Amino acid sequence: MVVATQSTSTKSVEELCINSIRFLAVDAVEKAQSGHPGLPMGAAPMAFVLWDKFMRFNPKNPKWFNRDRFVLSAGHGSMLLYALLYLAGFDSVSIEDIKQFRQWGSSTPGHPENFVTEGIEVTTGPLGQGIANGVGLAVAEAHLAAKFNKSDAKLVDHYTYVILGDGCNMEGISGEACSFAGHQGLGKLIALYDDNHISIDGSTEVAFTEDVSKRFEAYGWHVLHVENGNTDLDAIAKAIEEAKSVTDQPTMIKVTTTIGYGAPNKQNTGGIHGSALGDDEIKLTRKNLGWNHEPFEIPEDALSHMRKAVERGASQEEEWNQVLADYKSKYAEEAAEFERFLSGKLPDGWADVLPTYTPEDKALATRKHSETCLNKLAPVLTELIGGSADLTHSNLTELKDSGDFQKGAYQNRNIHFGVREHGMGAICNGISLHNSGLIPYGATFLIFTDYMRAAIRLSALSQAGVIWVMTHDSIGQGEDGPTHQPIETLASLRAIPNLTVIRPADGNEVSGAYKVAIENAKQHKPTLMAFSRQSLPNLEGTSMEDTTKGAYVYACGFAPEELDLILIGTGSELQLCAGAADKLKAEGKKVRVVSMPSWDLFEAQDEAYKDSVLPKVAGKRLSVEAGTSFGWQKYTGFEGGSVSIDRFGSSAPGAVCLEKFGFSVDNVVAKAKEVIG
Fold it and tell me: Nearest-5° angle of CA 265, CA 271, CA 277?
């Protein structure tokens, strides 16, 4: 659909504001000699119309709950966002910060980072992640609105706006997330597509010629087209108005623009995508756009107009505060729950529901213990929401006390992400970064974290408190063979900073893992738990509390200086260490068994505790884990060893795979004797 247009021929304050955005980007990139000026120059009109006429936000309280969320998915154009934040009056970005674009310690880094600059909702840069985060933000709004709103009280009522580019639409993750959004009918999600036909390689004609509008229509989106996004502000405004009137579909507005608009020799070329204009071109651009101002100088008329957002936002927040006060007077119980969500606090005694086990309890797969934990926690932690990438009954992630999150049933908490691992990851990040207290979880087989690694990395980078529930954690998963058997996966995940990776050995350690994961989520830190497919015994001496320390002495009985060997086990291999230790002790060897479900939790302990578990004066060490040996040398030293697997797996029943690859008590004993020498 083409939106009717109305030309504007005279200079106005609006044009001053738009050119202020453009030249802040031009000047900042030029000073840094690094950055992407083309997108801000082309997208400035749509961004101005959106921020000036539609978005609800309070620059002096960027965390106001009922603000509209804005995501610059095309994060390379970060100066667009920094210019908007400065002009609108956010304290997080001053003109000096603009001048320090991309410099050490500045609040204006090369790509928008939510943990650096207030007013930025999500970290963007890897293309497609932002629009997928936006879907997650819209999911959070829809769920909370369905849960808390009443017929006479709209407590939750805001939009998610996204600006995305050609690169975002080329990335597969955007297709996954936008397909999901269309199915769910997320009407509060409005995406403005900066259709400028240019990427780093030049014209998109070399690689990207599909009809994006038809693709989004097929996803189930409402689709509009603004043909002149360079100057037709009325058409942009009318399109956004129409988008807001469509409540049962997300809307994609294709806004056709000219990248680098106003630069006579470089606009509409790949050269302006990611390079400074240069002095000569800047002079020509200033002349072309009638901009008679020094670098970083903003006309007072433009600044005073944009700064109206401060008073407007304060008024909008005050109106919402009155809605909240009325809500509290009528619905005290729901209001208390809502305010607990926003506070980030956990209910008193929440962890008391986590089960404990003895060796007499039935052997179960740790994925089954995970299911038990989720369903013990769900009635107590009503902020839990999530699901699986089409593996609900393999990952065992269904919350039994809730229905399915679907169009018309957004109050439910079981999300079916479909076979969209990467999209699931970014959507979960968006739910968390909505910063409303929700605890999202996403699940698949451990091996398929490879399909969503970028999203997991960004959860760690952007401080998103997501819980990643991963099952089928080793060659013990069996018959599906090497394509489904993770070998190097845990090592690669352990390498991600700020990601807590836990591989529990039995029911007690699973409960400990969930205790950590929930607490981490409230502290804006993601947790990834790796669970077994096969049944494992509940072991004598495991502990929920000790699990939270990352590693602990499972069995010993000897002074550190007496030890011949320390066996270090994780997950399903802890039982092998225990069995091997018994045999070695019967032969007179002095052996300690350490359970080490989490490296980084262990590294967070003080030196005294770490030395009490893995004493420096002790003898040699042997790690036992059904995965690669890579990284274990940190704990075993060069004199130690590993029972590990450094090749791809094989298709056979899980027990056979484990036996053939040496994961048996007898082989651990043999390797232990080699290490002891």
Answer: 60
